[in-house]
Amino acid sequence: MKKLLIANRSEIAIRVARSAREMGIETVGIFNEADRGALHTRRVDSAHPVESYLDAEAIVELALALGADAIHPGYGFLSENAGFAGRVVEAGLTFVGPTPEVIESMGDKLRAKELMREAGVPVVPSWSGPLEEATQGANEVGFPLLVKAAAGGGGKGMRLVRSAPELPQAIKLASSEAAKAFGDDRVFLERYIEKPRHVEFQIFGDSHGQVVHLGERECSIQRRYQKIIEESPSVALDQELRERMGSAAVAAANALGYTNAGTVEFILGEDGKFYFLEVNTRLQVEHPVTEMLVGRDLVALQLRVARGEPLGFDQQQVAARGHAIECRLYAEDPNRDFMPSIGTLHIFEPPEGQGIRLDSGVEQGSEVSIHFDPMLAKLVVWGESREAAIARSLRALREFPVVGVTTNLSFLARVLDHPEFRRGATHTHFLQEHQLNDDRRQSLAALATLLAAGAEATGTGRSSGSTTSGPEHISPWESLGNWSLHS
Amino acid sequence: MRTFRYNDAHGEQRELAWSREDDLLKSEDFEVRLQGDRVLHQGRQLPYRVVRDGTQTWVWVDGELFRFQVESGSARRRGGDAAQLGGDQLVSEMPGKILELKAQPGDQVEAGQVLVVMESMKMELTLTAPRDGVVKEVPVKVEQMVDQGTLLVQLEPEE
Fold first, then answer.
1. Which residue of A28, A48, A161, A275 lies most exposed, with the fewest beta carbons within 10 A?
2. Residue contact B20–A448, C-beta within 8 A
């Protein structure tokens, strides 16, 4: 592997390029019109325009034309597109990821569950069949359970049932709601997991038949069904449960003949029972959590495995130290239902210090537009203990001035600072259930207002060379028009 | 003492009496001293940044970000075209679809009154009058798709 095309953008494209360059591999980036001049296009050896990050054929053609011999898909976009992976292989290039067959088999969520059940991996008990037999089905599934619409989604046609007498009425209501919403009244039963945690295992396989897991990540803190804080290890796992879940993840990978990086996602109930959710056949957004914890470069490992090398270590040699937490920095307004915000990053000054890593797709002066996912950067912090990692994350979040778009930075700090989070009582409904404390913000509001008033003091006009130094130097009491943002 | 007029995060109009003498910034309740990129407040120095961007002023202090929509009156005193435009015009912050128009040319409106409801990225947004005034023009229609920065409502110039 001499030349790698990175078929992605923003922080993940930069992250992949870093490892490739360290291995002496030439890097090729791509960008669409909206990303012209974006940070990721300046962190590769060369960058080339494409119509779209989803244009599989054009990307393969470009790789061939430029003499690249491998393609890394990153996450999102074409990363879990079996057709794309197949096309890359067919063109004689190396696809940095699992085989097209594995990607395809895990892409169909129902088929994936079936495969996992056969491999002996626990899946959430569910039942479907003629409704006259639903009572018996419910007993097989166990209570509490959900009646769900077969054609469903978005909570429509869904009913929570805690005991058998409630079942007939719930089925009636769910199926009439489903008929109205989807034109299909079929329903099925599925065990309801209370206060579930989202726990996933990083797996890795090489082309010599070896598969290992690199421990878990707990990703229970979610908003709009998207993860915003991930950590490892999970406080919910003791060594015995970790080994059982890890073995299940490895069994899943072995059943698939898995190669390269992947993630087996589980939900974990309060009773310590866990169930297979899905396999993500790519590098995850939150992979740096594992990198910090086990001290390995997962992208470098992906590239080595892709070119046929063995993993070079076994399960016994995977050692985790301390605790790692990732906070995803989004341009969004937590007070307006996490609505994305746009604007110019007039100020973007990442925090520093031991155990702090920032994987960013933006820099000071970047435009945050509506065109893409509003994730700006990932702050990944390592500490000797969970408590230390939380304290360090809080320091980093509070020493991180980002001005020009509304972000979730202080929201993330409030979550980490919440007594229930500190206690480790995390589950996927955490943000719906808990009120976050904004005393800190309230105590700073009067000061902030006075500082804003001070900005009225002088007229417009003078420009300054830098926005990174303090307001004394940048003269914040002036309009922005004359500022040079790229100093 | 001077008066700082602004809209807070909830769109409420507020005022703060303040004064400044070199590095000393005072309100009626307390005073702070500016020291480079720190502000000395109650005996502790806190990091801060202030950015003026059109009609809004951003303040980041000790990890919390605040955005103030500066009232057109004070913006006007300061001068500057951008500020003046912001005072007379309501523009879309995001691309999206117009769902409702709650004002017509000739209507007398109050600052903070909802003039436009639009949908953007599956969210419903309400856009409010930037100041008291009379509507001059509404150059968009219900159901119309608009880009970011599209003029939605034009107010008659202030006296």
1. A48
2. no
Closest residue by Cα to residue A116 from A124, A317, A318, B40: A124
Nearest CB to A406: which of B26, B67, B79?
B67
pLDDT one-digit tens code per residue, A413-444: 999 999 999 999 999 999 999 999 999 999 99
Q: Which residues contact B121 (CB under 8 A, 6 or more apart)?
A: A339, A340, A370, B94, B96
In single-letter form, the type of residue at position A444 comes to L
- Sort out which chain A residues have CB atoms less than 8 A from B34's CB and list them: 454, 471-472
Comparing A182-191, B4-13, B76-85, the range with the smallest average pLDDT is: B76-85
Q: Cβ–Cβ contacts within 10 Å for residue A311, how many? A: 17
Q: Which two tokens stand for residue A115?
A: 């495969």
Helices (H), A91-166: 100-107, 109-118, 134-141
A447–B32 CB contact, under 8 Å: yes
Give one DSSP letter per residue of A189-231, joined into a string: EEEPPSS-EEEEEEEEE-TTS-EEEEEEEEEEEEETTEEEEEE
Q: Does A34 touch chain B (CB under 8 A)?
A: no
- What CA–CA distance (Å, rounded) separates A70 from A307? 9
Closest-CA distance, B68 to chain A, in angstroms, reads 7
Tell me if ipTM is over 0.90: no
Predicted TM-score of the model (pTM) = 0.83
Query: For chain A, what percent of residues have pLDDT higher than 90?
Result: 83
* pLDDT tens profile A108-151: 887 888 999 999 999 999 999 898 999 999 999 999 999 998 87
Residues in chain B within 8 Å Cβ distance of A443: none
Q: Per-residue confidence at A453, pLDDT binned at 50, 70, 90? A: very high
Among residues A242, A282, A386, A414, the one annotated as catalytic is A282
Nearest to A339 among B50, B53, B121 (CB): B121
Beta-strand ranges (E) seen in A32-85 are 46-49, 70-72
Q: Is the Cβ of A452 closer than 8 Å to some Cβ of chain B?
A: yes
A457 touches chain B (CB under 8 A): yes
